[in-house]
Design a protein that fits this description.
Elements (H helix, E strand, L loop, with lengths): L5 H25 L10 H26 L1
Helix pairs in contact: 1-2
Length: 67
């Protein structure tokens, strides 16, 4: 049975998370993904999208600096 490299698997999982987070964040910023009006509508979605984008970018930079 072949041994699996957990570092590669961890990297793939991390990269997938980054890509999904950025896709959702930019979708919220661009207006593709919105919230119902009773939850705040477009403005709250845009603010949340920017928070997601910025924290994801910060996480990527910190992960690169850690390596």
């Amino acid at each position: 049975m072949a041994r699996k490299n957990p570092k590669i698997l961890n990297f793939v999982a991390w990269l997938t998370g980054v890509i999904v987070a950025l896709a959702v964040g930019f979708g919220m910023v661009g207006g593709t993904l919105t919230l119902p009006t009773w939850l705040g509508g477009d403005i709250v979605a845009m603010v949340a999208g920017w928070i997601v984008v910025l924290t994801t970018a910060l996480g990527v930079v910190l992960a690169i600096l850690k390596q």
